């Protein structure tokens, strides 16, 4: 940014130069007079010479310092480096390359009141804290959670938002064909299906041994046994005998037994299949952190949600951006996304509308704050303005703009 010298500074510089020049002339004239007058001791002559020289140098130094003091805060030396990471709704990148969002607008309100000049530098979320700890940045924000680990290497402002983690899942209202087919391989249904086939095999062999050699059942094991299986199956399902009618009384008794028990047995198999689908549906429903156990869950790399997910036993997929997590959820590559509540709620009503939904209650409550290098003098100044914005209602107005009334 270009710097301009105030009129007061120019006036002060001019006046100082005149005074310095006057001192210089006086020094010269007095020196000539004193050196010609033999009545003055040599020591006094030297004293006056050095005295006038000191006045001249002091005046020059004061002029330079006065100019330096009036140097505006917009110079490169005082330009604050603000690290941000795109993370809606806290930080949103506009089409023109600028930034907006709740955090951005709050920071700019603070910067105006403190008369700070700054420049944004976009970086990865996981790099904000390291950049601050190594003094490569003066301020950092993007839904930054205040925690013990980060506080050991940086300083945080007072919290400006209460938040926590939320769970986002796909917005599925009906059971998909894939889920239905997947239910066929559940242990419950496979077990009932095994009993069903055993019943047909056992009854089929007894019927073949009793009825073989008659006109309806072939005497040979193949294909006679398959004809017996067919007879048992159609009898169980109440379809009827079809082209196979038992001739012997033993075969008729077996068929009667299959009629009476087969209907119940067949109904039991259907019930087990329905139960398998129901249990699968309930098993895939995620409404709380405990439901995330052994589920594949996506979240932002370097975020505080990783530790929480590992504690509940989830298979964590770390993505470079939270937007990538949303894409993986839509493509059915993960079961859920867990991240800060404001970001998930914002996505639910914008890009993810109709595709994803936030479920359950907010958990692992946390606070957001502006981050600074350790021992930053700016921290206390920001805290004072934050308190002032909350007292005068400007903070509430900004919060309601982005998140609705609270």
Secondary structure layout:
Layout: H1 7-36, H2 42-69, E1 80-84, E2 92-93, E3 99-100, H3 102-114, E4 118-122, H4 128-133, E5 139-141, H5 148-151, E6 154-156, E7 161-170, H6 177-183, H7 187-211, H8 221-236, H9 249-284, E8 296-300, H10 305-311, E9 315-319, H11 322-330, E10 336-340, H12 341-349, E11 356-368, E12 371-373, H13 378-391, H14 394-403
Parallel strand pairs: 1-4, 1-5, 8-9, 8-10
Antiparallel strand pairs: 2-3, 6-12, 7-10, 7-11
Helix pairs in contact: 1-2, 3-13, 6-9, 7-8, 7-9, 8-9
Describe this structure in words.
The protein has 406 residues and is an alpha/beta fold. 53% of the residues lie in helices and 15% in strands. It has helices at residues 7-36, 42-69, 102-114, 128-133, 148-151, 177-183, 187-211, 221-236, 249-284, 305-311, 322-330, 341-349, 378-391, 394-403; strands spanning 80-84, 92-93, 99-100, 118-122, 139-141, 154-156, 161-170, 296-300, 315-319, 336-340, 356-368, 371-373. The strands form four sheets. Strands 9-8-10-7-11 form a five-stranded mixed β-sheet, with helices on both faces.
Q: Which structural class should the secondary elements be placed in?
A: alpha/beta
**Major beta sheet summary:** 5 strands, mixed
For the biggest β-sheet, the strand order reads 9-8-10-7-11
The H-and-E topology, N to C, reads as HHEEEHEHEHEEHHHHEHEHEHEEHH
Strand content: 15-25%
Q: Give the fraction of residues assigned to helices.
A: 40-55%
The number of helical elements comes to 14
Distance linking N and C termini: 40 Å
What is the 3D form?
rod-shaped
The strand count comes to 12
Question: Uncertain spans, ≥5 residues at pLDDT below 50?
Answer: 1-11, 17-40, 55-75
Rounded average pLDDT: 80
Rg measurement, Å: 42 Å
């Amino acid at each position: 940014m270009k710097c301009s010298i105030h009129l007061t500074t120019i006036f002060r510089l001019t006046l100082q130069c005149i005074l310095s020049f006057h001192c210089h002339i006086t020094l010269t004239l007095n020196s000539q007079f004193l050196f010609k007058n033999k009545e003055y001791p040599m020591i006094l002559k030297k004293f006056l010479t050095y005295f006038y020289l000191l006045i001249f140098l002091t005046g020059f130094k004061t002029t330079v310092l006065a100019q330096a003091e009036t140097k505006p805060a917009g110079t490169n030396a005082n330009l604050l480096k603000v690290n941000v990471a795109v993370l809606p709704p806290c930080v949103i990148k506009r089409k023109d390359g600028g930034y907006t969002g709740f955090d951005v607008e709050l920071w700019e309100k603070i910067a105006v009141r403190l008369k700070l000049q700054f420049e944004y530098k976009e970086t990865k979320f996981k790099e904000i804290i390291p950049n601050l700890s190594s003094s490569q940045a003066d301020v950092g924000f993007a839904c930054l959670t205040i925690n013990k680990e980060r506080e050991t290497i940086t300083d945080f402002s007072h919290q400006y938002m209460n938040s926590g983690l939320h769970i986002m899942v796909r917005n599925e209202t009906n059971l998909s064909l894939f889920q239905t087919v997947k239910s066929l391989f559940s242990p419950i249904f496979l077990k009932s299906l095994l009993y069903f086939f055993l019943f047909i095999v056992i009854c089929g062999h007894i019927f073949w041994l009793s009825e073989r050699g008659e006109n309806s059942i072939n005497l040979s094991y193949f294909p006679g046994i398959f004809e017996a299986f067919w007879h048992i199956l159609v009898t169980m399902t109440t379809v009827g005998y079809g082209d196979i009618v038992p001739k012997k009384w033993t075969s008729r008794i077996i068929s009667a037994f299959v009629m009476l028990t087969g209907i119940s047995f067949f109904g039991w198999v259907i019930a087990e299949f329905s139960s398998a689908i129901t249990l699968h549906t309930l098993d895939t429903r995620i409404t709380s952190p405990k439901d995330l156990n052994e589920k594949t869950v996506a979240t932002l790399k370097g975020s505080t949600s990783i530790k929480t997910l590992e504690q509940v036993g989830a298979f964590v997929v770390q993505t470079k951006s939270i937007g990538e997590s949303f894409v993986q959820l839509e493509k059915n590559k993960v079961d859920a996304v867990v991240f800060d509540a404001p970001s998930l709620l914002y996505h639910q009503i914008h890009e993810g509308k109709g595709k994803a939904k936030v479920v359950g209650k907010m958990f692992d409550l946390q606070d957001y704050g502006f981050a600074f290098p350790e021992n930053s003098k700016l921290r206390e100044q920001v805290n004072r303005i934050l308190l002032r914005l909350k007292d005068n209602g400007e903070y509430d107005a900004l919060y309601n703009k982005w998140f609705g009334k609270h």
